[in-house]
Amino acid sequence: MLTKPKILIVCGTRPEIIKLAPIYHFLRTQTWCEVQWLHTGQHQEMAEQILACFDITPDIVLSRAGSSLSEFSIGCRQQLDVVMESNTWSAVIVQGDTESAFLGGLSAFYQRIPIAHVEAGLRTYDLTRPFPEEGLRQMLSRITYFHFPPTEGGKNALIKEAIPVKNIYVTGNTVVDAQKWVIKKYNIHKAITSGRNILVTMHRRENWGSDIEEACMAIASLAKTHADLKVIFPVHLNPIVQKSVDPILGGLANVTLTRPFGYLEMQQAIANAWLILTDSGGIQEEAPTFHVPVLVLRKETERPEAVHAGCAKIIGTSGAAIIDEVNALWKDAGLYESMKPSSNPFGDGHASERISEVLKSQLSH
């Protein structure tokens, strides 16, 4: 009797869980393989909430040693090695560019287990932006066997780095699969009375300090100019971010500063938004599903597909640029309509099925 391929999903952060959950659920419906979920503990409380949201109970949970990233990395790697050695895994699936993804891939590599990298090929080619993610994802590509870039752009980046074309499979982004899953399960849709809400998120390390402050000054100016504008800003828990945001935006009547949103709250907030200002990569991918334009508060993006499609624009954090771009959309309905995406350029909601088909063809003999 042939043994079914055993697949291990390794992840540890909220964004990874969101993007790997659809793959896990799809593989669970398949008869050709067995799949297990390993949680590294990199994120704990936030991870528990999102795992519950997606009806996932991890098969393996690592214990987190220490609070620093280096302590986590050492303890995680040691425990991962034990897991990798304890079973005959046919493949290890990781996603993105986190410490958990890199450690999961590295541990699998040392055991000669094929690595499947979901969301492969994203690049800024600047190792400092985003840091350390750009370095981690570049290193992960060198040891991966199955590369699953979401778009042709990711595929082209990998080919330029001499990754064999036969190992690259464009799938679409599983974030769209995840959105479709929660939209159906939790009945998320745009509120009729949404109005002109602007959703703002800023958290990236490279924007800490003066960049966030300048952006907030611009948002404050817009809020004072347009009385019917409503700003919703879920503020990151990092004290550095809060110290920049709260003094500038805290006292304005039409600006709501909240704690960070959970995944479902964020999907509802995106659905209700008229416009989004963000430095988040995930929101750049999610907003087109709800037909909401995005102004990207960064100098570059590793997700250019939305920019190419016309539904996102990179504007940086200059106060003048933010004011000018928002006012242009406010005054020009035609310009605004031209930025509303009719479909999501990152995927069609079937990425998980494509990933499963590739793994089935390569692993089940």
From TrEMBL:
Which reactions fall under this protein's catalytic activity? UDP-N-acetyl-alpha-D-glucosamine = UDP-N-acetyl-alpha-D-mannosamine
Q: Which domain of life is it from?
A: Bacteria
- Which segments constitute the UDP-N-acetylglucosamine 2-epimerase domain? 27-360
Q: Which GO terms describe its molecular function?
A: UDP-N-acetylglucosamine 2-epimerase activity
Cite the InterPro entries for this sequence. Answer: UDP_GlcNAc_Epimerase_2_dom, WecB-like
EC no. given is 5.1.3.14
> What keywords are annotated for this sequence in UniProt?
Isomerase
Where in the sequence is the signal peptide annotated?
none
Reply yes or no: does the keyword Cytoplasm apply.
no
Q: PANTHER family per the record?
A: UDP-N-ACETYLGLUCOSAMINE 2-EPIMERASE (PTHR43174)
Q: Which family does it belong to?
A: Belongs to the UDP-N-acetylglucosamine 2-epimerase family.
Q: What is this protein called?
A: UDP-N-acetylglucosamine 2-epimerase (non-hydrolyzing)
Q: Which organism is it from?
A: Polynucleobacter aenigmaticus
